[in-house]
Amino acid sequence: MAFVLPYPLYLLLLLLLLLLLLQLLPFSAVAQTYKNISLGSSLTALDNNSFWASPSGEFAFGFQEVGSNGFLLAIWFNKIAERTIVWSANANNLLQKGSKVVLNADGQLLLNDAATSKQLLLADSAGMEVAYAAMLDTGNFVLANRNSRYLWESFTRPTNTLLPTQTLNQGTILFAPTTATNYSKGRFMFTLQADGNLLLYTTHYPWDSANFAYWSSQTEGIGYQVIFNQTGAIYLASKNGSILTTVLNNTASTTGFYHRATLDYDGVLRYYVYPKSTNSSGVWLKAWSTLSIIPSNICVSISQDKGGGACGFNGLCQHDQGPSCQCPVGYSFIDPNDELRGCKQNFVQQSCDGTSPETDLFYFEEMQNTAWPQSDYEKFTPVTEDWCRQTCLADCFCAVANFRNGDCWIKSIPLRNGRIDPSNGAKALIKIRRGNSTLKPEHAHSRRKNRSTLILVGSVLLSSSGFLNFLLVLITYMVVSGFYFKKGKVVQPYSVIPGMNLICFTYEELNKATNGFKEELGRGAFATVFRGDLESDNGRSVAVKRLNTTVKESELEFKAELSAIGRTNHRNLVQLIGFCNEGEHRILVYEFMSNGSLASFLFGESRPSWHQRRQIALGTARGLLYLHEECSSQIIHCDIKPQNVLLDDSFIARISDFGLAKLLKTDQTRTTTGIRGTKGYVAPEWFKNMPITTKVDVYSYGILLLEIICLRKYFEAEAEDEDQMILADWAYDCYVEKKLHLLFDNDDEAVHDIKNLEKYLMIAFWCIQEDPSLRPTTKKLTLMLEGTVEVSIPPDPSSFTSSIL
Known about the structure:
Elements: H1 7-24, E1 37-38, E2 42-44, E3 51-53, E4 59-66, E5 70-77, E6 85-88, E7 100-103, E8 109-112, E9 119-123, E10 132-135, E11 141-144, E12 150-153, E13 161-162, E14 167-169, E15 173-177, E16 185-192, E17 198-203, E18 210-216, E19 225-228, E20 234-237, E21 243-248, E22 257-263, E23 269-275, E24 285-286, E25 293-294, H2 298-301, E26 316-319, E27 323-326, E28 331-333, E29 343-345, E30 362-368, E31 370-371, E32 376-380, H3 385-394, E33 400-404, E34 407-411, E35 419-420, E36 427-433, H4 444-463, H5 465-484, E37 503-504, H6 507-513, E38 520-523, E39 527-534, E40 540-547, H7 555-567, E41 576-582, E42 585-591, H8 598-603, H9 610-630, E43 634-636, E44 645-647, E45 653-655, E46 662-664, H10 695-710, H11 727-736, H12 748-751, H13 754-767, H14 778-786, H15 800-803
Parallel strand pairs: 26-35, 37-41
Antiparallel strand pairs: 1-10, 2-7, 3-4, 4-5, 5-6, 7-8, 8-9, 10-11, 11-12, 13-22, 14-19, 15-16, 16-17, 17-18, 19-20, 20-21, 22-23, 23-24, 23-25, 26-27, 28-29, 30-36, 31-35, 32-34, 33-34, 33-36, 38-39, 39-40, 40-42, 41-42, 43-46, 44-45
């Protein structure tokens, strides 16, 4: 007969088994609420539930996922729906899934990055006899010894927030975040200096050094410590403890409300409260009295000589229940997600070539009570408003004229310290090119321009052999994914390629963006390009490429390559925005480059200026430097040529098409692979079965640089003289024979800058040396272009270029 346990005993055994299972769970797998965190404990970045809570549960220390960009090791308010972050350890470098924070046996607090395998020491407390860590109910995370003395604490290393019972000592700095959702160090700082003065500064962004002080306590020599006491007052005290000045204050009770003071991304230090009641509105409350915000009006407080001001270059700051940024008529935000970056012109600036003043092509838009202090280069008084208008119209440098009571200020871009304020009484006359503003998209002219530009970009990308190879590899991955996951309606690539900074679009989103894929821009063997406008991104124009074929390729190699490209982010690279991998649909979405390819710009009818060409050459080199040395995985582009360099709204060079890219691991300096690239730009080592290094890109760049300098293609079969057919050979002959003027027919600007022109030629000759060891690294190349490294006389680059044409 079977033995049956009594029901009460059965329940007891079940409870014991449950407790045993809970004890066996990994320490980092569940949120902990222990007062003391023992040595050897760790947390893993898996989701937003990986944390250690304070005893009351009001604060937590652990990992917070920031959008789809990665994880932040942070401290936050844990009992409110909006888990407001008050401290972070890695704001400038988000971590990928699987990263860990470890309190090791030596009492050190370590942060392990899963993507790079690098280890960051957060608290060097080895040998200090750390006994445990604790997340306190004050919001302070501490390492303590057996006597509960704090050996390290987050309160003494604040980021952008102060909490009750926290103090700010001399030399301590709060940095504003870059935006409301980007926690990296931004454009403003709050610090108690060693001399006792408490100040708010702008920074030399992206550096974090102090620039312009826009608020001061004026307590030099006596200020000692900023104290946030338990009653809710924040004051500056002297060394003997006496109160010098109240910094911020709030009358809300500390028992019924959560309190914090935060230096926000817009540069304003604000006092916030949040009701603890479950019946509350669930939002942080801001009080706008002078005791709960500094400065009272940041728009008029900032007037700096260097930097754009409260809202960036060309931007306008308006104070209405706190500052808000906007762009003047005819301008738009450089980055709608970061309005403090400033504004750009939506039209081509007036020409200064001297042949025509173009006065009939421009008009003025008026904005009242609008000014950009310290941006003027001329002032005339007393004059009429009409005289002021005509003077600005005839001056090719003039972007805006301010007029007030007979005074006329003439201003050029970039405009600084912009503000809209009733107290200034000035009228801004903003000069805009007629019929050329993208702020009026309904005009037929604008629609035609955008359509033709998109067609150009689409054809450039489709015609690139590198892009086609990238598509082939991408299709392979998608087919393999579809085979293994064909039962699922949507394949989620994030599950197999973690850490990609790409948007996963639905097919319906892209179908709507392209109006049913109706407006075709270009077609190739492997993809069709359509015009698209993302409704979810303020109508942002994109190039949408629908793939239609597959090849066999290594899935692992593709994953590594796509993962690396998805993580790249540099102003001189074209950004892959996202993709769709839904059912049978395989679609790529690329950033839109409004000015087409460098090939069209160099060899078309526009004839770019020497200054523009120098900036494009430098920008392209900086993009290569990022790929070779600064991104997490070294990338050899393998197909640098003018068709693969695109130009954005400001004619900034952006490298595109990573389709042929070859990745190098961090411990590699070279690799081997089949021949890749485009005839004329391919380095000799491709043909000699030599190891491939980043120097192949340097060679290709050298040929490209010669084309940029001389405004002609690397090979012209119909050249007037046979000696001029191959650009590299002809340019070197002219250099040796001191006949550089032959290279620059009808280019007076370049001829008048003959010293720099010769230097750029010498750099190009160094880049195309047949021996890779003679070519400069991309770092040295960039420094030579910038003028910080001398350029020595180059040897003859040999006749290799002619042998492969």
